[in-house]
Specification:
The complex is a heterodimer of chains A (about 130) and B (about 375). With about 130 residues, chain A is an alpha+beta fold. Chain A is built from 4 helices and 9 strands, in the order βββαβββββααβα. Chain B has about 375 residues and is an alpha+beta fold. Chain B has 3 domains: about 150 residues, Probable tRNA modification gtpase trme, domain 1 (Gyrase A, domain 2, 2-Layer Sandwich), CATH 3.30.1360.120; about 80 residues, Alpha-Beta Plaits (2-Layer Sandwich), CATH 3.30.70; about 80 residues, Beta Barrel (Elongation Factor Tu (Ef-tu), domain 3). The chains are: A alpha+beta (about 130), B alpha+beta (about 375).
Chain lengths: ~130, ~375
Amino acid sequence: MSDPSPVRFTKTHEWVRPEGAGEAVIGITDHAQAQLGDVIFLELPSAGAHLTAGQRFGAVESVKAASDLYSPVSGEILEVNQAAVSAPEVVNQDAQGAGWLLRVRLEGEIPAGLLDPQAYDAFAESDSH
Amino acid sequence: MSEREVPLGALHRRLGARMVPFAGYQMPLQYSSIRDEHQAVRERAGLFDVSHMGEVRVGGLGALAYLQRLVTNDVGKLEVGQALYTVMCREDGGIVDDLLVYRDPGDYMCVVNAARHDDDLEWMGRQLPPSGVELEDQSDQTCLLALQGPLSLQILAPLAEGTELGSISYYHHRPGRVLGVPVRLSRTGYTGEDGFELYCDRAAAEGLFQGILDHGRSRGLLPAGLGARDTLRLEAGFRLYGQDITLEREPISAGLGWVVKLDKGEFVGREALVRAKAEPQLSFIGLRLLGRGIPRPHQAILAAGQPIGEVTSGSYGFSVGAGIAMGYVRPGSAPKGSEVEVALRADPAERGPAQVVALPFYRRPT
C-alpha cells in the first residue's frame, strides 16, 4: 500500500514533496507562513546551486520578521519559483502548492528523520503555544 | 498575563481576526493580510477599531490655562470644533505622551495612547491646580472607530443623517449621528489618508462597526488591524509613542518642533525645549532602503562604516515599494539625499544601503 501523503516536514517548518524521477519540490509550511504573516522578500539560491540537508539555504522576510530557511534534503537546484520571488504573497496564499520555492534533483533518499504530515501537525500545534 | 478584551473583541474574532496583545489589550492584528488591508486603505477604505485609546475630558473654568501649561502646542488658538495634535513633556523635555486635544463648547477632550493611559492620568493629575479644573477619564465607556481611505466620505455620508460630512475640514470635528448612534465625527486619522474617526458609547460600538462594514463592503471596505495601521502610519511619517518618541526623547529632536510653541507662554518643559532648539541633540530622519530587506527597531544606522544612530520604526512600505525606517542620528551626520547603511539582521555585517529622505514617505494624491 502506498503512503497517502509522501510529503515530509522539518522541525524548522520546511516541506519536501517527491515528484518522481529523483526530483522533489521544497517550500515552507502553511503553519510557517501563518506565523510569519505577509511575506515580502524571498532570498533563494540560484538554479545549479547545491543544497545540504539541515543546512541554511536562504531566508524569508515578512513584515514581522526575517527567518532562515533550512533544506530538508540534499541535492542540486533545478528550478527556482520565480513567480514566488517576484510576488511572494503567493507563499501566504498557497504555501504548500503554488508558493513552492525550489525544485531539486535529490542526492540519495529523503532523510528518514523528517516528520510525516500527522507528526508535523502535532509538532506545529505544540510549537505555536 | 491577562490582556483586557476590547469591547468589540467577539466581533473581531467572528470576522476572522488574528488577535495579539498590544498595550494591555487583545487587539486585532489582521483580518485578511496586512498587504490587502494596507492597499484597501490607500485605494478604497479600511475600518479600524482603536477603542484601546484613552479619552480624558478636561473641564472647568481653568481648563484652558491648565492645558496651556500641560502641552506644548497652543491650545489658545483652538476653536470650538477644531482638533490639535500636540505632545506633553516633563520639565526635562522628555515626552510623556502625544495626544489630540478636541475643543468642545464647554470643555476639552484629550485622546491619549493606551499604553500611556495610566501614566498620563497620573501626570495630568499632578499638574492640576488646587481648583477650577476637573479631569474625567471616559476611556472605559468610549469606543473609537477609524474609517480611513479615499472612499471614507462616500461610504459614511449616507449613514450620517443630518450632517454634511464634506463640510467637516481636516482636523475638525462635530457631534452627529451615524446609523442613529450619537458620535463625535472627527476628520482625523493615523494613516495619511482622508477619513473620519468616530467616538461613541461602548454599548453602541459593535453595531456601528458592523453597520459601517456591511454598508461599505460593496465599495471594497475591509476591516483593518494593527498590522496595516503600523505600515500606513509609518509611510505617513507619524511617530509612534514607545518607539519613535519616549520619555528619553524631546520633541525638537523628534522633528516635532512644529507642535512646540515657545512663544505661547509658560508650559511644562519650556526651558528644556528652548535649550534643545538652540542646540539639538539628535536629528529624526527618514530612510528608504535601496535594495531588499526590511529595517527593524533598534538596528544601527551607519555612515562610512561608523554608527551614527538607530532605527526606531521600520517596516515595509507597501505603497512605497521598499523597506522604510525612521530613527535618530547625530545632527548633521545624515543630510537628506545622502546614502547610509542600516544593519539588517542580527549579524552586524549584514547591511543594506539606504537613502536619507524627507518625511513623509507617502503623500496621498491631491
